[in-house]
């Protein structure tokens, strides 16, 4: 699949670039790779990444779906970062790098719209909060790798490369507009139960609970601001809908400069990327259809806004309570 995909892309590059431009020089400049890497891609020895395919599609004006999933209608292309043989630090960094590339592509597009269906706070929400992001890394490490389940939260250190990448997110264009969030009415519950679990096991201290609660309150205030103003902290347009039905998992669908892509989070951090146009359009229609079972609370429904905010505050006030298992 990947070999045929590379062949199709190599053919598209050769037929699309002007005759006076050498393909290898074109690739090295556009993709910021070395000549040897460019040669290996053109010879199908290593695959082009999703980011590279999308950059080429935007530059050479062809559809991503012309390259991916073209030959077999019953198949779709899944892009999942897999680093099972790497250390947890390397694997986590690679995962965040993939998400950064996806976000960067959308951010740099001129025409873009994003639909999100969320049943829990996303990793994107945590990027700007040191302790919450550390919590997601801590939990991800425990669930993904065979590490001691008795390591306290306090000894966890975010790899410096990951922190550097977190700061790069702040440099992306802040003008992503038309972001539509359809959220579960209990969106804070999963995160608060995670904190309760580690706190009950005495792996999170009282001092850390205070910091986590403060940061979660900031997240909630950001959501409340969008509900009341229709804009996020950067001034970008956004809207919230409260779903009356349960949302099974976090997912989003982004359209940007004639392209479309979807992310499905199988875990709060790890995501699966799909760029098959038919599947992405189906996902977009599904997310849009959820609005039929949702209530718009941005710039409207102040009573429902208040009820939602108060419910999340209750979750935050219960961080130090014992978990009710049944």
Proportion of beta-strand residues: 5-15%
Helix content: 40-55%
Uncertain segments: 70-78
Distance between the termini: 46 Å
| Rg calculated over all Cα atoms | 21 Å
Number of strands: 8
Backbone structural class: alpha+beta
Number of domains: 2
Mean pLDDT: 85
**What's the order of the H and E elements?**
HHHHEHEHHHEHHEEEEHEH
What is the overall number of helices? 12
Name the shape in a single word. Answer: globular
Read across the widest sheet, the strand sequence of neighbours is 1-7-6-5-2-3-4-8
Largest sheet report: 8 strands, mixed
Explain the overall architecture.
The protein is α+β, with helices and mostly antiparallel strands and 326 residues long. It has 2 domains: 2-64; 78-317, no CATH class. The protein is 49% helix and 13% strand. It has 12 helices and 8 strands. Strands 1-7-6-5-2-3-4-8 form an 8-stranded mixed sheet, sandwiched between helices. β6 and β7 form a beta hairpin. α2 (23-31) crosses α3 (35-42). The longest helix has 24 residues, at 206-229. The protein is globular and about 65 Å long. It starts with a helix and ends in a 9-residue tail after the last helix.
